[in-house]
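Ticket 4471: requesting a sanity check on a complex prediction with NAP. Repro inputs:
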Amino acid sequence: MASDNIEKVIIIGSGPAGWTAAIYAARANLDPLIFAGRPKSQPTTILPGGQLMMTTEVENYPGFPDGVTGPKLMSYFEQQAARFNTRIVTDNGLHPDVSNPDDGHSYSYHDCQRVDLSVKPFVVIGEDDKEYRAHTVIIATGATANWIGLENEKRLAASGGGVSACAVCDGALPVFRDKELAVVGGGDSAVEEATYLTKFASKVYLIHRRDQLRASKIMAQRAMDNPKMEIVWNKVVVDVLGDDMISGIKLKDTVTGEESTQTVGGLFMAIGHTPATEFLQGQLDLDDKKYIKLDDSYRSTTSVDGVFAAGDVVDSVYRQAITAAGMGCKAALDAERWLADKGIE
Ligand code: NAP
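Returned structure tokens:
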């Protein structure tokens, strides 16, 4: 904390970007305070740990040659931030002690409800309307993958039953090798992820609700030319079949209403993401898809001086843990320089 109960930096969000910002800010003696968010069962601004908490095996995060589960990786991020005394807003006050997150915490992390970025120092409002003030704020609230919302889709995604919203994260896992897989969506992500999956799968069905892809022409053409890909036009998934592991999907034709079943060994949703920016209530410039706009794409600066943003909340393209972590680092360094320029110790 700087002085007069004003924090030097408040970080909102606890995915790879948020925890990395915390590690850098803490090591720079900025004594960061982090809002890590509530579990996803409750309506929240922040999903604690971010999207990796929904991932099973992570094989592409450098430094883990044997892979690591998403939740484990995030607990390592968190322990590293705690090691340098990052303070976490919780039910029981501010906790730096997360030495053994595997045991589960005996306290709940707090969500950030809203912010007032029109005043300086900034105001960050936590649960029960408790106000915190800060000279700088780093927003790393991420973006959540959109799901169709089917009961069995949610169940199998949560249990590692072959349903995922990230082909790049999960597609290369042995469980999907040489299987027939399905990707839902018609945008660039769907085409890109389906194309990626053709490296491992015996066949990939790209299931799209219309008769035309939204993806860029070149990517769409590449998909159509791929001998391992079959585009299934005018179909939506209306159920996911299988007990512990997906065995197939039930489809409905959007033109005729006819229902059919397709056997698949994996289902990947690529129907867009929703950035967690609603709590900002228009106080920062957003792009047309509601991602935070950076005023310099090389840095983490936003439309409000002293407010920095990092991770998937600014990135609709790469959306990787490693890119988010890199942006979290940049945001902490930018905040540190901002404070130094203003002479705030
Ligand atoms: P997107 O462009 O919004 O596409 C989402 C797709 O999902 C659309 O085809 C949409 O169908 C479909 N969809 C949405 N809700 C659905 C539902 N409930 N059931 C079935 N289908 C549904 O999202 P995106 O593909 O993630 O791309 C996001 C942005 O990132 C875009 O600007 C994209 O260009 C960019 N991006 C670029 C690259 C690249 O250049 N390499 C790669 C990935 C993403 P409709 O078409 O019918 O609306």
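Notes from triage: The chain is about 25% helix and 25% strand. Leaving this open until the requester confirms.
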